[in-house]
Amino acid sequence: MELLEDKVVLVNGGSQGVGAGIVRAAAREGAHVVFTGRRAEVGEKFAAESGAAFVQADLADPVQARRGVEEVVGRHGRIDCLVNAAGLTSRGSLLDTTPELFDAHIAINLRAPFFAMQAAVQNMVERGAPGTIVNIITSSAHGGQPFLAPYVAAKAGLAGLTRNAAHAHRWDRIRINGLNIGWTDTEGEDAVQRAFHGAGDDWRRKAAESQPMGKLGQVDEIADFVVFLLSDRSGVVTGSVIDWDQIVPGGLD
C-alpha cells in the first residue's frame, strides 16, 4: 500500500527545491497533490512534468496563503495533509538588516505558514477528520550564522508555532511536526551561494568535502522523510521538531 494513498496534499512552495521534491514523493506515494508557487511559468512547467496541480500564490500575502488551502478544498472537497516548504533565505545580520528585509522574512517564513495552517486546520476540524502538517524549518533555528539573523528569527518562531498548534489540536487528531533541515543542495541554495558568498562552479564539491557525511543534504532524502511524517506510518508523533542534519546541536570539538 502506498504511504499517502488517496490523501489530498498541499505543498506550499512546491515548484522547486525541497518543495518540488516533496511534490514528487507525495505523488509517487499515491496522493492527490496540489502545490503553490509565485511564478506562473515555473509552476505550470513543473505541474506538467509532475502531474500535480499548480495554484499560483504569493504567500507573502496572508489572504493568498489561506486561498491555497481553499483552492484545494474547492477541488477535492477536503485537505488531508499540508506541507509548508516555502522559504526566504536572503542574508542579513543583526546590524545590517532593514525593516523591509525583516518583514519579508516574517511574511514568508512565519506568517504564511501560520495562515495556511489556520485554513487547513479549520477544514479538518469542521469535518471532524484527522490530518497531518509538516513545516520545513531549519537547524539554524537553534542559533544560526550571524548573516542569517532575520531568517533565524522567523524560523525559530515557526518552530514554536509548530509545537503550539500541535498541542492545541492533538485531541482533534491533527498531527503537526517540523523538520529542522541543514545545508541542502537546491537550486535556491546555488543562487544564494553565488549572490551572497561569491561562490564559483565548484562550491558544491567544496561544501560536500566540509561535511561529516561527505555530502550536503539531498532533496529526495528529505522528501521521503516528510512523506513518512505525513503518513500513518509515523504513528502518534506530534509536536516534534526533528533535527535532520549532520551537525549535532550542542556538540563541541
UniProtKB/TrEMBL annotation:
Domain of life: Bacteria
Lineage of the organism: Bacteria, Bacillati, Actinomycetota, Actinomycetes, Kitasatosporales
TM regions (residue ranges): none
SUPFAM superfamilies per UniProt: NAD(P)-binding Rossmann-fold domains
Signal peptide residue numbers: none
CDD domains linked to this entry: SDR_c
Protein name: SDR family oxidoreductase
Coiled-coil features, chain-numbered ranges: none
PANTHER family: SHORT-CHAIN DEHYDROGENASES/REDUCTASES FAMILY MEMBER
Family affiliation: Belongs to the short-chain dehydrogenases/reductases (SDR) family.
